[in-house]
């Protein structure tokens, strides 16, 4: 399995929308990277304009189908099995190609569910490969990768009906006071 992550629209493209939503004049230069992280954590709507194309080659069909269930902020393109006369008899583990166009918020939300220890191992592997690819990119993508954690890291507790018991493995990425401090709602 191979994962290729390509950013189609840069975070700098959200500056005008950010200025409009905040009611301030648009600033010259690049978007501040720490502001970008605050926008991601706050789930601020201008971040939805940034788009990524993720291409996964040789992914098991059943794994691609699990990822396809995430439809908000995404558009999936999965290799069809229609070419086979009796596609119902095709194995669920058959390797296919999968491409998805998505925004950062969608990727974070997918990660909250699919990086959980309760998620299928192969799906966790795909998300870990995407996260690693983002870490190997620029500082904007690094901030997005830092936000890709299981839901328990965001909440500080596990919402699963039958928790995995490994909550201590994950330190919360941001506690509520940390999140408020990062977006400027609480004085240091």
What does this structure look like?
It is a single chain. The chain is an alpha+beta fold. It has eight helices and four strands; from the N terminus they run βααβαββααααα. A four-stranded antiparallel beta sheet has the order 1-2-4-3. α2 runs parallel beside α6 (139-147) and α5 runs antiparallel to α6. It is globular and about 60 Å long.
Short note summarizing the structure:
The chain is α+β, with helices and mostly antiparallel strands and 188 residues long.
Top CATH class = Alpha Beta
Residue share in helices? 25-40%
Basic shape: globular
Task: Look at the helices and sheets and give the structural class.
Answer: alpha+beta
CATH topology: Gyrase A, domain 2
End-to-end CA span: 45 Å
Mean pLDDT: 86
Rg over C-alpha atoms, rounded to the nearest angstrom:
18 Å
Tally of domains: 1
SSE layout and pairings?
Elements: E1 2-7, H1 15-22, H2 33-42, E2 52-60, H3 61-68, E3 74-78, E4 95-102, H4 104-114, H5 121-135, H6 139-147, H7 151-155, H8 176-182
Antiparallel strand pairs: 1-2, 2-4, 3-4
Helix pairs in contact: 2-6, 5-6
List keywords for this structure.
single chain; 188 residues; alpha+beta; four-stranded antiparallel sheet; globular
